[in-house]
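Researcher: Good morning. I'm working through a list of sequences from a screen, and I'd like to move beyond sequence-only analysis. For each chain I'm collecting a predicted structure so we can compare shapes side by side. This is the next one on the list. No need for commentary yet; just the structure.
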Amino acid sequence: MTEQQNQGQQNQGQDIGQLLKVRRDKLAELQAAGRDPFQITKYDVTVHSTDVKDDYEAWEGREVSVAGRMMSRRVMGKASFCNVQDLKGSIQCYVARDSIGEESYRDFKKLDIGDIIGVKGTVFTTKTGEISIHASSLTLLSKSLQILPEKYHGLTNTDMRYRQRYVDLIMNEDVKKTFVMRSKIISSIRRYLDGQGFLEVETPMLVANAGGAAARPFETHYNALDEDVKLRISLELYLKRLIVGGMERVYEIGRVFRNEGLDTRHNPEFTLMELYQAYTDYHGMMDLTENMFRHVAREVCGTTTITYSGVEIDLGKPFERLTMIDAIKKYTGIDFEEIRTTEEAKKLADEKGVHYEVRHERGDIINLFFEEFVEEHLIQPTFIMDHPVEVSPLTKRKPDKPELVERFELFIYAREMCNAYSELNDPIDQRARFAAQEAAFAAGDEEANHTDEDFLNALEIGMPPTGGIGYGIDRLVMLLTDSPAIRDVLLFPTMKSLS
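Model: Good morning. Structure tokens for this chain:
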């Protein structure tokens, strides 16, 4: 039985307060002796644990220095073993009294699970075949004054895992891997877009008019200006201003804030990436998206065939492309090309049990039918194109079907992964659509956009034909890490206060 298992049993039988007091007493003893670990400012790390394990032949017999958290220890008289966990994994260290000295060995035996230590020593393999470090010196770098969860059961309380992510990262190796992958995914996206000639930019988070999406904003007050402002719900309108200004390919990866509910796919603040490219349309955005998803999967996962929730997803094959009306027809047999009026659409909705609001028009009903009957079938990557104009206030109309717009959403595993347009660059049409949104807001739609006069002025200066797209980065990370909930890919998800 390891010391950590012993400690776990002791924790059940002893008062936690007493155990915590013992740790503080040990710290006080060190400080009284002039060896306060919190006074140490640096430690020279030469290698990480898995670097040694992955290339043992290169490291065998060499002196290395590792640092990390002591996660277990076995004391066996004059020699002991401990396990040190660092960023990349963990490695066993062999600590012998004759190698580090009698005083240092006594100090080592007083350490607690969770203490952060530095170990210098020589790489070797034990008789049982485990790659280890034979310690020549050991340094206490930080004293852990709290007690970690018992290693063999881990931190399993979901609510506590999200609230104390720092403990979750220590105790659950897969959690750390998820967030390392998240970082790699974002880096891969940046490399891909930079290679395509895009410029990364930053735009305001505090705005007078939160537009570009159908969502309720958070509101706050700017003391210095004595003005009420909102937190952005989208990146769109400022990035389009940059297209007007001649920056032909731009993207931004940043936090946006929407005052809405929490569920497995929604968090009030989340990471959005939007990009805009002059002189292309939504077909160009489809090509870019398909290529980028393949690039990121191949670079980060090593394959374009991934598994999500037990289902194999093939990102290597051409993504299916369907219009919204054709998708409804494919999965329900209903052809909205034959249903031309709002009255006919509402009658059909009544027959099929699709709930709608009085203000809804034919295009809204089409969108409701899609959400009700089609989304659940879109498991493999599918572009849903040509949405109704009523649900797309910032999108260019199709020249041959002005009741539809040049817009698509990508669905994978029945989830929307991104939303893209041939961007509306007609300022007269845009003003009319803002007016329609204002009317919707007055009729009770709290998510409707408001007129943005400066954006209209930018369009009147002149914006070239442009393709634009928004990606939910968190959902992409969920997909590529096989994570069931958005909270599993957010380091610090929104939680209701305990107080």
